[in-house]
Design goal:
Length: 187
């Protein structure tokens, strides 16, 4: 699957939205990425996760981990592709943690997965958990890297697609000036 095909798949599943959006950061954008819309289609999710797993085949991965929410489905399917265990982190009392009896052993080789990386905040929190457990972090696999600058995670990151999505301070937003209605896509 090349970049054009993956971009079309993201558009066809509604994961790429065009309009006028309020981002979590408070900035505005004419494009929004909602990968969870891709994940509602098991066949397409399987195909994308197979691509996410490919660079790590033969690397002796023991566990795949992803942050809740989007990383739950991705960790499961990438782990299935690799024939290994899947776990996920979640928020609990204001912290990102392993719960539900999940644990990571010191000797495990772990792959981190995420749907999209913008600032890398969620991935960094997962990496902090793995570093505290003193595991071997094999790398990071993401569907879309939409960061301006690739965050330095200290381990290799493989992205299926690099996507630049322009954003604006509200006072400089051309969409506001053109009276395009503002949407809050995470509601």
């Amino acid at each position: 699957m090349n970049n054009k095909v993956l971009t079309e798949l993201l558009k066809d599943t509604g994961a790429i939205l065009d309009g006028h959006f309020l981002l979590t950061s408070g900035r505005h954008s004419g494009r929004f990425l909602q990968c969870s819309r891709l994940l509602q289609y098991p066949d397409q999710t399987e195909a994308v996760c197979k691509l996410m797993a490919e660079p790590f085949v033969g690397k002796k991965i023991d566990t795949v981990i992803g942050p809740a929410m989007g990383g739950i489905i991705l960790s499961y399917e990438v782990a299935r592709q690799l024939g290994v265990r899947a776990v996920f982190t979640e928020q609990f009392e204001g912290q990102i943690v392993l719960r539900r009896g999940f644990s990571i052993d010191r000797d495990e080789k772990v792959l981190v997965v995420e749907d999209a990386v913008t600032t890398g905040g969620s991935v960094k929190k997962v990496l902090d958990i793995l570093k505290k457990a003193k595991t071997h972090i094999a790398g990071i696999s993401v569907i879309v890297d939409r960061s301006d600058l690739i965050p330095d995670f200290g381990v290799p990151m493989k992205a299926l697609l690099k996507m630049e999505i322009e954003s604006y301070a509200p006072e400089d937003c051309p969409l506001c000036k053109a009276s395009v209605p503002l949407q809050r896509p995470k509601n």
